[in-house]
Amino acid sequence: MADAPTHLLERVLHQRVTLVLKDARQLTGILLALDEHLNLVLDDADERTSETTRHLGRVLLRGSNVVTLHAPQGASSKGA
Fold it and tell me: What are the start-end ranges of the H helices in 1-80?
Protein backbone atom coordinates (compact mmCIF):
# COMPACT_ATOMS: atom_id res chain seq x y z
CA MET A 1 0.00 0.00 0.00
CA ALA A 2 1.28 3.48 -0.84
CA ASP A 3 2.27 5.95 1.86
CA ALA A 4 -0.19 8.71 2.71
CA PRO A 5 0.87 12.20 1.54
CA THR A 6 1.49 13.34 5.11
CA HIS A 7 3.86 10.41 5.71
CA LEU A 8 5.78 11.22 2.55
CA LEU A 9 6.14 14.87 3.57
CA GLU A 10 7.25 13.93 7.09
CA ARG A 11 10.32 12.35 5.47
CA VAL A 12 11.51 15.77 4.29
CA LEU A 13 10.78 17.73 7.48
CA HIS A 14 13.58 20.15 8.36
CA GLN A 15 14.98 19.99 4.82
CA ARG A 16 14.95 22.64 2.10
CA VAL A 17 12.10 22.14 -0.37
CA THR A 18 10.74 24.05 -3.36
CA LEU A 19 7.02 24.52 -3.85
CA VAL A 20 5.16 25.60 -6.98
CA LEU A 21 1.89 27.37 -6.21
CA LYS A 22 -1.30 27.63 -8.28
CA ASP A 23 -0.40 31.16 -9.36
CA ALA A 24 3.01 29.96 -10.68
CA ARG A 25 5.05 31.46 -7.82
CA GLN A 26 7.86 29.33 -6.45
CA LEU A 27 8.69 29.23 -2.75
CA THR A 28 11.88 27.69 -1.42
CA GLY A 29 12.42 27.16 2.29
CA ILE A 30 12.89 24.70 5.13
CA LEU A 31 9.80 22.59 5.79
CA LEU A 32 9.08 23.02 9.51
CA ALA A 33 5.59 21.56 9.92
CA LEU A 34 2.50 20.22 8.20
CA ASP A 35 -0.98 19.10 9.20
CA GLU A 36 -3.59 16.63 7.99
CA HIS A 37 -4.86 19.20 5.43
CA LEU A 38 -1.32 19.50 4.02
CA ASN A 39 -1.01 23.10 5.19
CA LEU A 40 2.72 23.77 5.37
CA VAL A 41 5.04 25.98 7.40
CA LEU A 42 8.27 27.03 5.68
CA ASP A 43 11.12 28.85 7.41
CA ASP A 44 13.72 31.06 5.72
CA ALA A 45 11.44 31.14 2.66
CA ASP A 46 12.18 32.92 -0.60
CA GLU A 47 9.51 33.72 -3.19
CA ARG A 48 10.33 33.74 -6.89
CA THR A 49 8.12 35.06 -9.65
CA SER A 50 8.96 35.67 -13.29
CA GLU A 51 9.98 39.24 -12.40
CA THR A 52 11.33 39.26 -8.84
CA THR A 53 12.78 37.32 -5.94
CA ARG A 54 12.16 38.35 -2.33
CA HIS A 55 12.86 36.95 1.11
CA LEU A 56 9.71 36.21 3.15
CA GLY A 57 11.05 34.52 6.28
CA ARG A 58 8.55 32.16 7.96
CA VAL A 59 5.33 31.50 6.04
CA LEU A 60 2.20 29.41 6.46
CA LEU A 61 0.80 28.00 3.22
CA ARG A 62 -2.65 26.62 2.70
CA GLY A 63 -2.22 23.12 1.28
CA SER A 64 -4.79 23.63 -1.48
CA ASN A 65 -2.55 26.31 -3.07
CA VAL A 66 0.40 23.95 -3.55
CA VAL A 67 0.67 22.28 -6.96
CA THR A 68 4.02 20.50 -6.55
CA LEU A 69 6.68 19.99 -3.91
CA HIS A 70 10.27 19.27 -4.92
CA ALA A 71 12.29 17.56 -2.22
CA PRO A 72 16.06 17.07 -1.99
CA GLN A 73 17.74 14.11 -3.70
CA GLY A 74 17.51 10.91 -1.67
CA ALA A 75 14.65 12.12 0.52
CA SER A 76 12.38 9.25 -0.55
CA SER A 77 14.58 6.70 1.23
CA LYS A 78 15.01 8.72 4.42
CA GLY A 79 13.18 7.24 7.39
CA ALA A 80 12.15 4.13 5.49
Answer: 5-10
